[in-house]
Amino acid sequence: MFKDKATKTAIYTGIISSAIFLLFFQPILENLSKATYSVASNSFKGFLNSVIQSCAIGFNESFSFHTETVLFSLFLGIGVGAIMIFSRNLRRKLNPEIDDKQIKVSSKTMSRLSLILLLFSILGITFSLVSSFMEHMIISVHQQQMAIIAPYIDEQSEEELRSEWAQMQTKADFDNFNDKISKIAKDNKIKIPSNDF
């Protein structure tokens, strides 16, 4: 059955390559996946914490920042496009001896640079819009919750809740605040909208 030399070679090669994978590449891939998960998890936690901090500040300050980010990204994209168009035309006017191949090489470089800048602009705009939307929803639900429970608590408790909201820095602070609001609603048998995300 295994008398054929090619079959034996294939079997040995498969065994050796499997052993190499299990001994060398599998641990590398496993550690790389753990590191990637850790970085992504910490980045997401940082994003949530920044959203919570912006919510504690309120609407106006964070909204103007996001508007500025979107406008900056748009101007950056328009500027890169204009530079590409003008640089190609300027090179032709200043040095008519340049052939089309040289212009194409430099325009390919500019196209790649423009694509990278465009991707960063899109990521910046997406980040701004998502965080702005999340902040708007969280603050809107918070205001609704406070309006619902206000008749059931005294002024001192309401001021303490507003102070606690303004001091939030992390998702854990946000969760603790929501637990207090939920407890007040449950104790008074009232329904409030959920502010979880």
Set down the secondary structure blueprint.
Elements: H1 5-57, H2 59-94, H3 100-149, H4 155-166, H5 171-187
Helix pairs in contact: 1-3, 2-3
Keywords: Membrane, Transmembrane, Transmembrane helix
Transmembrane segments: 9-29, 70-90, 111-134
Structure write-up:
The chain crosses the membrane at residues 9-29, 70-90, 111-134. The chain is built from 5 helices and no strands. The chain is an all-alpha fold. It has one domain. Helix 2 (59-94) runs antiparallel to helix 3. The longest helix has 53 residues, at 5-57. It is flat. The termini are far apart.
Tell me the fraction of residues in β-strands, as a range. Answer: under 5%
Strand count, sense and closure of the main sheet?
A: none
Number of helices: 5
Helix content: over 70%
Stretches with pLDDT under 50, minimum 5 residues: none
First CA to last CA: what distance? 62 Å
Q: Key terms for this structure?
A:
197 residues; mainly alpha; 85% helix; 0% strand; flat; membrane
Summarize the structure.
The protein is an all-alpha fold and 197 residues long. It has five helices and no strands.
